[in-house]
Each structure stands twice: as C-alpha cells, then as structure tokens.
Request: fold
Amino acid sequence: MFDYLTSKHAHFDAACRAFAQGHNLEELARAVGMRPQVLRNKLNPDQPHQLNCMELLAITDATEDARLLDGLLAQINCLPSVPVNNATAENLQICALSATADVGAIAGEAVSPAHMTAARRTAIFDRANNAIRNLSLLLVAVESRFNSTPVMAAAFDAISSGQIPGLM
Reply:
C-alpha cells in the first residue's frame, strides 16, 4: 500500500546534530535516565551508538521537540510529525499565524543571496516543518469544529453535492 523509500540524504543525521546543538544535553540526559556522554554519542552520527525507539520517544516527550522524529520521517520520505492533541479551537489562530510567519520567513530565505550553509539549511527545514505542522493542526481543528455540529455538516454536504436543487 505504501512505498517507504529510504532517502539517500542524511536527514536523520542532520536532525541529530541540530537537536544536540539546540539542547542542554547534560540536563536532558538526566531527565531521560541516561549518562550525558552516552546521549552525546547517540546523537553524534560519527559514533557507532544509536538511539533506540524508546529513547527517541523519551527524548521527544521530555523536550517536546519533534526535530528527531521529523528527521526520521524525512529519512523515509515522509512529512513531519503532527501532534494532533494540539489541535484545539483555542489554537486555531495561533496555528494560522505561526504558519503564515513560517512561510514568510521561508520566502525571505528563498530570495536571499546569502550562501547556503548547513545552519541556514537546517533553519529553513525547521521553518518548513513547523509550517506543515501548523497547517495540519489547522486542518484538524477546522475539521473537528465542523464535525462538532452534525446538522451543519449534513446541510453543507447536501448543498455541495447538489442534492438540494437550485442552491448550487
């Protein structure tokens, strides 16, 4: 049904490097019950040690930073993770504004003549992943809001499908 092809680009390795630079690994290691040097080694693609699934989940839960998951998903040519529990009516405006801001920042980077460094590339990817995540959350929130009023949903479906003559 699905064809998960592993990318030839080292998305997960890049995510590990960016994650390690963006967090205090000493504190994080203690929070997830790991020695700091072991965590550093597991986030270093040049080391033979690798994160296992449970460690990846614990780290993501402790930091609420989806960068490692997004790198893993990008490695198999998938879109970034979307925490659907964040899709609430209260977050609707925040998701819309954040997505707009991220897309604007990406547009600014696209026209910039600056040299494409690894840090700049990572920042652009992070912005793109955040924009996709926020747009997805926006869709989930709108869908749940729409489905919370079944009469309205049924009326809209009837009108849009042409079942009520003269309205479409």
